[in-house]
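Customer escalation, tier 2.

The customer says the design service returned an amino acid string that "doesn't look like it belongs to this structure." They asked us to rerun it and document both sides in this ticket. The original structure tokens are below, unchanged.
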């Protein structure tokens, strides 16, 4: 039986992954979490995950994502004879942030459920990442990260479909167009062409489907991305504003406060303080 040291923080340069089959008694506790992100994909048996508000069990096809610096508590579920799972510790690239918007299970923990077909594709990508990491050569890390990104894209695609199943396909296309480049303030004409609709029909259908105008929806996407950047990166507020297409740090701060009722600097201090609390 393999056991994890209490509160150990795995040393992760870029990607650190493996495939384990554990027996009764296996349990990992990291009360302060890890400095890396962690994905655990269950292939067989049942795993149990604990967060600060409760717990949940995982079975074949369940993939769990844990944020850095949050409680890590998981292991084989009671009454099970084994737990078969893949795990990956990794540090994110900035452009991966939109791939990590999974269904929230509790503080610091998210989960998606994959079909058998989806599971096969994700397992292949993760196995390719592990093999690339072990390969000799100076590009092994880059190859491992590329395969991991492929797995995250597959999971994110499944997550996006599960969370927006009722949206008109043309509106989903327009939203995808927005997400691809949040720095651009796209015109109604650009989005309507992407959706294959006239401008008037597109504007009406978009508001009908989402409850807000296209321009407001795009701003919400940009501001939600800014929250991720404030929490998970060390970019300055000026750099974040510029990366999301805002003309100035002052205007970005105005829009952020109007949407979330606090300044970006206050938000960053608050969420980072919460991560460090026991």
């Amino acid at each position: 039986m393999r056991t994890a040291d209490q509160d150990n923080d795995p040393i992760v340069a870029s990607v650190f992954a493996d495939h384990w089959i554990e027996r009764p008694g296996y349990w990992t506790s990291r009360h302060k979490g890890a400095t890396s992100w962690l994905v655990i994909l269950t292939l067989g048996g049942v795993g149990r995950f604990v967060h600060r508000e409760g717990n949940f069990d995982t079975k074949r096809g369940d993939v769990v994502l844990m944020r850095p610096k949050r409680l890590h508590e998981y292991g084989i579920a009671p009454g099970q004879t084994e737990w078969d799972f893949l795990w990956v510790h990794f540090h994110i690239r900035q452009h991966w942030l939109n791939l990590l918007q999974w269904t929230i299970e509790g503080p610091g923990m998210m989960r998606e459920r994959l079909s058998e077909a989806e599971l096969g594709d994700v397992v292949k990508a993760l196995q390719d990442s592990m093999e690339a990491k072990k390969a000799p050569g100076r590009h092994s890390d880059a190859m491992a990260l590329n395969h991991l990104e492929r797995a995250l894209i597959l999971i994110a695609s499944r997550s996006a479909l599960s969370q927006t199943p009722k949206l008109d396909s043309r509106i989903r296309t327009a939203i995808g167009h927005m997400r691809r480049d949040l720095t651009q303030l796209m015109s109604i004409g650009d989005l309507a062409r992407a959706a294959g609709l006239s401008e008037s029909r597109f504007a009406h259908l978009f508001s009908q489907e989402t409850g807000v105008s296209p321009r407001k929806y795009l701003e919400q996407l940009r501001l939600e991305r800014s929250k991720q950047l404030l929490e998970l990166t060390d970019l300055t507020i000026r750099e974040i504003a510029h990366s999301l297409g805002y003309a100035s740090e002052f205007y970005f701060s105005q829009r952020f406060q109007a949407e979330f009722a606090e300044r970006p600097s206050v938000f960053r201090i608050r969420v980072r303080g919460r991560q460090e609390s026991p």
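Tier 2 assessment: The sequence is consistent with the input. Residues 39 and 110 are 10 Å apart (CA to CA). The radius of gyration is 20 Å. Sent an explanation to the customer and offered a walkthrough call.
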